[in-house]
Structures are given as structure tokens and as C-alpha cells.
Amino acid sequence: MPRFGFRFLALLMALVMVAVSCSSDGDSTSANETSTDTTAPDADDEPAESDSEGEDTDGDAAEADDAMEDTGDEAADTSSESCQVETGLGRISSEAGGPIQGAQVYVPTTFDGTRLPVVLNWHGLGSDGPQQSAFSNYDALAEQEGFIAVHATGTPGPGDTRNSWELAQLDIPNRDDLAFVDDLIDQLIADFCVDETRVYSTGMSNGGFFTSRLVCEMSDRIAAGVSVAGLTHHDECEPGRPVPFMAFHGTADLVVPFAGGESSLIGDETPDGFAEFFEQVMPDEFAEFAADFGCDPEPEVMEVGIETIRYDYLGCDDGVPLIFYEVTEGGHTWPSSPLGPLLLDSLGYTTNDVDATADGWAFMSQFSLPS
User: Fold this and answer.
1) For 82, which DSSP code?
2) pTM above 0.85?
3) Using one digit for the tens of pLDDT, what is the confidence trace for 261-305?
4) Would you say residue 212 lies in a domain?
5) Do the domain assignments include residue 371?
6) Strand residues in the chain grouped as ranges (E)
7) What is the CATH number of the domain that holds 333?
8) Measuring CA to CA, how many Å separate 130 from each of 136, 194, 305?
């Protein structure tokens, strides 16, 4: 892919975010001033670098197993208190873990004082929170379904100019993104009326890798996760409990190769010794999570639409579901993204068989942390 393709994508995302900002409800404001910046973000707050990663979304709602549906009485027990939070688009920031990192927070206008679930949606390498919101359209779904959507922006690593999330395979000196996430969740619970038992994680590419890491290392805080176009099970991954987990990946992804063993389009721009990271085989990485959770070694296989295959791992500990979607000839994309057709030339084909936003939320929203 020529580098101008990434530059075009960054410009496109900036224009999209201007449109999103202009179309926002004029009465929408940020939440409590105690630990937040009350200025709503726009596209110029955190411009993406030249190698932004896009995403695409759509499909049939995922039907997970009935097991471990803890969102009923347990969630109600933690959501009984009434909170005061202003609705609409707000900001939050944290110094935990090193550099100051900020996040865009969307509280639905239907908020009635009852604690709400939250989706943490992590962007790809070189992107930012507002762009990830546009890629996935998660804020619109949050308004429709009545949950809080959070789109944080990472910081560049040493010798790089692109925003990123710290992965277990690449420890960044003087930076701890897990500490940032921990503090972010604490602030959301305290200041945005988030239900601590219903914190979910999803993300695109580097953000999908990061969600994988949170499933490995923060299973005490993340109730369920969905990775899109990026999945990794690092050698020290030892989840403290079985976590409901879903992933989407295209077989023609040229940025994070589906079958590994191929050079990534951004492999020559990664830190020294990190190129082998892209040798990971995506279905095998997911199968390692299934092994961690005691699932049957061979998944059930079914076709979804005309270009997507779904793999369900059954018999997992605590009955948790693990679902992997293989998108035939899918690119480095977010299934059913509203921007999918615009990203065809730069990031590849986007399927509409499945919807990484709607299906991801339908999957995650069934679960809460065990008491």
C-alpha cells in the first residue's frame, strides 16, 4: 500500500469527525467537573499520524450461549444508587501509567440516574479516540441501547510518532497502559455512573491486540471482550477467570495477516525486533484463549451469510462462550463500518455479513463480572 493511502485515510477521518462534531446535539455537555475536561472534543484535538488504521462494521447479531448471563439481578444490585451525570459528549483524562492520556466519553441522553454499562473502544495504530468512534459508530449505538461509550487516545512509543497502546510483547519504558485503564475505569465508576460489573472492552487492530491483553491481565475488571482485526495471546497470558470473548478477522488483511508468516504493510515501521509479531496466526491465537478456558479443542463451525465463517468453542469453564469470525477476503477492516466503502482501496474489503459494533455489543452486554 502506498503511504499516501494512509495520509488520505487520516484526512478522511478528520473530515468525518468535523461532520460528527457539527451534527452533535447542541445541548450535549461533559460530565462531572471533578476529574474531567468539560470541553467536547473535535477532530482537531488529536490529529492522527500518517499511518492510521481504519475499520469497518456490519452483520447479523451474535447469538451467544445462554451460559453466564449474569446481567440480571447481580447488575441490578450494583446499579440501585442514583447518580448525577450530564449527558452527551464529554472528556476525561488520566496521568496514571506515565503520559497524560485523554478519552472521549458519550453518555446517552436517556440516562436516568441508574448506573450504566460501559464499552471501552480502543483505536488502531496512528489513530485516535474520535476517529475510532467514527469508524465503529459506537456512540450512536450507545444512544440507542442506553450504555456509555468511551474512546480513549493513546500516545506514541519511543522513536515513533503514532498513537498506540502498549502490548505485553513490547514493554514501553516509563509507561503503563494497564495502570491507565485501571484509573480510567475507577474514574468512570466514580464520575460517570458506570456499573463496575459491566465494563466491556473492544478495539481495532492495535486496539484489538490491547483488548486481548486486557482479557489476559485484567479479567477482574473486564466482563467481556471483542477484538477486531487484531488478536494476540502472549506467552505470559494467564487470565484470572474465563472471560467471554469474540474476535473478527479478515483472511485478506495485509496489515495483520490472518495466517501469519507474511510481512505486514507496517512491519518495516515497527520497533526493532517486533516484525515477528505479525507471524502470529489469528485462529491459533484465539484457540489459545479457548485452551486457557478449558474449551473443547475443536470448535463448531457454521457459515454466516455468504462470506463469513463462525467458530464456536463449546464446553468452556463456567460455560463462557468464545466465538471467532473468519471473514473470507476481508481486509484490515471493521465489519459493517459506515466508512467501509470509502476505505476499500487503502484497507481492503469490508463485509456486511456481521456487524462488529451491533454484534459485539449484543455479545458483551449479556455478561457481568461474577459476584
Assistant:
1) B
2) no
3) 766 666 555 555 556 778 899 999 999 999 999 999 999 999 999
4) yes
5) no
6) 88-94, 101-107, 116-122, 148-152, 155-156, 163-164, 194-204, 224-228, 245-250, 300-304, 308-313, 322-327
7) 3.40.50.1820
8) 10, 20, 31
